[in-house]
């Protein structure tokens, strides 16, 4: 029964002078739904409308039989039971981290175990007596996440929570966001313009373009589609579900993936761990024969499916590796030199150091 879930039914329109957002979406009650699109496509407008922060939004938002908004009324933001974290979330400057957390927690009447749990899961214990102005950007976002979570929201809405951070800080905080996804047990709406974050975090994906949804569905299915604009970006690639088979003493991982075994480098993953590995098109080179005499550790047999000319003398190559679609990017000259054409068997070669998991 649709009414029994916390799926968000969202039918919304926002009209501005030079911009129109019009969406009709069901956001699943389980897991993380990423909203991805170029700058100005309306991602934040959609999130803010769901949070009740867009006065110009008209339409309806329903969750589990509750109406947050319809043609008659719109619940104010604080009655929508959402936890919201923005790129720059304001913490209360005169309160310590501990008091910032207690503030939202007390108002929501949540159990004290919840406060302790999120302090532990987000590693906040050393920060509790600090004031917001003394925190780094990444620390501040961890506190903002905890503050949202201790109110026991029905939906967690994250608007580019990492985009103000540099790559190193982002890498530090991503595992915490993964922990939220895994342990919070509440659905997350995650607005981002980073493919890497979508690949790491998303279960479902909504693509927005100029205020309209161009695709929505299971994240890996959409990320790996060759017919969407995502496939033409410089960082195009596919994402594979993987399981760690072993880790050698130097930290090299052997992963089992549906496309075949792959070697990769990464954090302290242990045998049996499940993870996602993103294989970028520009990290795959093609050979007509198997070469065991190079430093390339990953050699996957594949069939060439299609070739698409790209600007600048590059060619996008769609491959099928044991039924799994892969994308490779090669030079036009290589296509001629190897006389590549659809139906040909090839070897997809990938450097292990290109695969960071
Ligand atoms: N308060 C506002 N008043 C008027 N126009 C706005 C307002 N906020 C956003 N816009 C415009 O609405 C459109 C959508 O903006 P929005 O912030 O939702 O896009 P976005 O996809 O989140 O972009 P970004 O990735 O750059 O944050 C843009 O054209 C933007 O300039």
Automatic annotation (TrEMBL):
Gene3D superfamilies on file: 2.40.50.100, P-loop containing nucleotide triphosphate hydrolases
Gene Ontology MF annotations: ABC-type transporter activity; ATP binding; ATP hydrolysis activity; molybdate ion transmembrane transporter activity
PROSITE patterns referenced in this protein's UniProt entry, alphabetically: ABC_TRANSPORTER_1, ABC_TRANSPORTER_2, MOP
Key words of the record: ATP-binding, Cell inner membrane, Cell membrane, Membrane, Molybdenum, Nucleotide-binding, Translocase, Transport
Superkingdom assignment: Bacteria
InterPro entries: AAA+_ATPase, ABC_transporter-like_ATP-bd, ABC_transporter-like_CS, Mo/tungstate-bd_C_term_dom, ModC_ABC_ATP-bd, Molybdenum_import_ModC, Mop_domain, P-loop_NTPase
Domain Mop, first and last residues per copy: 293-357
Sequence ranges assigned to domain ABC transporter in this UniProt record: 3-235
GO cellular component labels: membrane
Name by which UniProt lists this protein: Molybdenum ABC transporter ATPase
UniProt organism field: Lysobacter daejeonensis GH1-9
């Amino acid at each position: 029964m649709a009414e029994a879930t916390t799926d968000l039914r969202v039918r919304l329109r926002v009209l501005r002078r030079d911009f129109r957002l019009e969406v009709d979406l069901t956001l699943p009650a389980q897991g993380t739904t990423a909203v991805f699109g170029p700058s100005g496509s309306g991602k934040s407008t959609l999130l803010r409308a769901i949070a009740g922060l867009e006065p110009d939004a008209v339409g309806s938002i329903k969750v589990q039989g509750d109406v947050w908004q319809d043609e008659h009324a719109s619940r104010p933001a604080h009655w929508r039971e959402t936890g919201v974290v923005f790129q720059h979330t304001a913490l209360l400057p005169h309160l310590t981290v501990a008091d910032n957390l207690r503030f939202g927690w007390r108002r929501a009447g949540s159990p004290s175990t919840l406060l302790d749990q999120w302090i532990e899961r987000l590693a906040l214990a050393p920060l509790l007596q600090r004031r917001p102005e003394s925190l780094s950007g990444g620390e501040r976002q961890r506190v903002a996440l905890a503050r949202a979570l201790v109110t026991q929201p029905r939906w967690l809405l994250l608007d580019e929570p990492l985009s103000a951070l540099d790559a190193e800080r982002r890498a530090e905080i991503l595992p915490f966001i993964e922990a939220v996804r895994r342990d919070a047990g509440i659905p997350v709406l995650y607005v981002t313009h980073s493919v890497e974050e979508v690949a790491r975090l998303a279960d479902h994906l909504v693509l927005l373009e100029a205020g309209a949804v161009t695709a929505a569905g299971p994240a890996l299915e959409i990320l790996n589609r060759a017919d969407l604009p995502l496939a033409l970006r410089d960082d195009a690639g596919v994402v594979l579900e993987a399981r760690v088979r072993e880790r050698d003493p130097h930290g090299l991982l052997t992963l089992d993936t549906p496309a075949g075994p792959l070697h990769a480098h990464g954090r302290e993953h242990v045998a049996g761990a499940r993870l996602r590995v993103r294989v970028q098109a520009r990290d795959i080179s093609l050979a007509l024969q198997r070469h065991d005499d190079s430093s390339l550790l990953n050699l996957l047999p594949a069939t060439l499916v299609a070739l698409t000319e790209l600007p600048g003398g590059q060619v996008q190559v769609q491959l099928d590796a044991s039924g799994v679609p892969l994308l490779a990017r090669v030079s036009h000259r290589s296509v001629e030199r190897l006389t590549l054409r659809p139906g040909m068997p090839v070897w997809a070669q990938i450097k292990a150091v290109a695969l960071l998991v």
